[in-house]
Predict the structure.
Amino acid sequence: MTELLQPIDAVVTWVDGADPAHQAKLKAYLESIGHVPEAAHPTRFRETGEFEYCIASMLRFAPWLRKIYILTDNQTPSFMSMVSQSPNSERIVVVDHKTVFEGYEQHLPTFNSRSLGTILWRIPGLADQFLILGDDQILLQDVWPEDFFRGDKMVVRGGWYPQYEYRRDLRLKRFFNIGGTKNDGNTIPRPGMRMGQASAGIIAGFKKKYFRMPHNHHPQIKSLLEEFYRENPQVFEKNISFRLRSSEQFLPEALVTHIAFKKSRVIVENRLLTLLLKMEKISVPWLKLRLALAKVSGRFAFGCIQSLDMAPPETREIVMKWVKKRIGSLAENLNREYIP
């Protein structure tokens, strides 16, 4: 590991969907709009124990992180009492939505990770270089600062893809109306990750192509975001205004990547891979095969365990047993020393 030239932080957005206060806020909002969109599916807010491993994995595999910020809506993770008694009590910090939304309180409460990802750079004291991730994401092996930043450049994983309007396969499908691709004007596109990244590319000026990134701990540069949003305040406020995820939003972590490409401050490196597990769909044999591959490969540094609450008990038990063995519990990792 090279010596850190400047501090690097991490920010995790988290919600306890079982909290009665959260449920009451969400219920009131859904009643106000008169329907329940897909973005309000309960699985987006449930947490079934994986969040502790998200934090534990950063303590174990990225001990050089200066601070780990947890962005929440007037909630405190149950493990924070244990954290407060540990040597890392100052490194793990809970930040409330009201802090980052100061001056924009009209957009609260929000139940939208994209809105939060757009505004979290306003966390007081946040390092200029930081990582952004969701509470279902974990590290699976040692990673180093140079896996994310080298000097003033970000290290990103992924590749370039044509914007949707320039994809030949989609243009042919639209022409021949294959798969019902002609939109009647009433269909609301699904706010998927790829669409959000493509939209970020367009906003940054990439009209014909966009850089598509897999699920991982995304590097971010606060000063680039501050500059862009200062010059484009309407883009910023529109993206934080959606209470639930919307197809009209861009993916915030992708925006700074495209901005950095325009400023030649990006290094593309695809050595490290992500183990993506969609738990509501995966079969036991396929799950075991994926876990075995991640164990022997040496390239799977990131994990993303989606919809663990929707997994059958057998698959949930298999993956959590594997994760615990790979990472260790939060209690086991809380005494690890910060290595700047």
The first strand starts at residue 8 and ends at 13.
